[in-house]
Amino acid sequence: MAARNPLNIGAAARAMSNFGFHRLRVVLPYEKAFREARSAVGASRLLANAEEYKTVADAVADCTLVVGTTAVRERNLQHQVKRLEPGARLIRKQLQSGNVGLLFGSERVGLSNQDLSHCHWLVRIPTGEENISMNLGQAVAVCLYELVRNGNARAAAQREYVEPATAGEVERITGMLFHVLRASGYTDPRRTAATEENVRRLVRRLNLPARDTEFWLGILRQIIWKVESGEKTVS
Predict the structure, then answer these.
(1) What angle do CA 139, 15, 52 make, to 5 degrees?
(2) Across the beta sheet with 99-103, what order do the strands follow?
């Protein structure tokens, strides 16, 4: 959660407590006083135990699925956007086998493009067109209610389970791929940030299994070694 207003963080904590969710992670909260927010009625312990992170990447590093929330507006989004109900079904299924991060942005601007690049896909609440933006606490409550309202959906069909890579493992591969692109001269220094966002989204769309992460890292290390050793030979 990249929220700024401590009262909204408290309201989000209250909603989490209402629906049985207990791990609140906050990225760069604007005020340390958020842990004492009076809006966290009945959720003071949850708020006191909230984990603070400096970056979204750190906050979702152990998640196998990261879902961003958005009101869409006029933004040109590079992600698939799902309505809340079908999105919740996919989240419930993933929760049976790994951690899922549900990412909410600040009240003023929502999630930045950089934040969104850490997401696998996005979910939206079907609000009325005349006022599509919801209060943070309300949005958290609606999303979490949808996740728990159908207990039968927690029983997934029996099938072979392939453990997906965590966000931290995917970020390691992404960082190594950035290195390859820089070493090969592919990256335009004037568009580095945009290129990195596109690459991060691309890697996440691959839905890499955990068992393949070291294999991919080995491939990329070998490419980097070849590129950089070739540069030294030429020079």
Answers:
(1) 90
(2) 81-83, 121-124, 63-69, 99-103
Q: Are 138 and 3 in contact (CB under 8 A)?
A: no
Say how far apart CA 5 and CA 136 lie, in whole Å.
Answer: 9
Distance between CA atoms of residues 199 and 183, nearest Å: 15
Residue 133, token pair as written in the block: 């933006």
Res 1: pLDDT: 65
Rounded Cα gap, residues 119 and 65, in angstroms = 8
Question: pLDDT at position 154, please?
Answer: 44
> Could you tell me the CA-to-CA distances from 94 to 64, 90, 113 in Å, in that order?
8, 6, 24
Crossing angle for the helix pair 192-205 and 167-184, nearest 10 degrees?
Answer: 130
pLDDT (0 to 100) of residue 155: 43
Assigned token pair, 191: 């568009």
C-alpha distances in angstroms, 217 versus 77, 87, 171, 195, 208?
29, 31, 11, 20, 12
For residue 68, give the nearest of 58, 76, 79 by alpha carbon.
Answer: 79
Q: What is the pTM of this model?
A: 0.73
The single-letter code of the amino acid at 84 is L
Q: Mean pLDDT of successive 10-residue segments in the chain (235 residues)?
A: 75 91 87 74 87 94 94 72 92 90 85 92 86 86 90 44 87 93 85 88 92 94 88 57
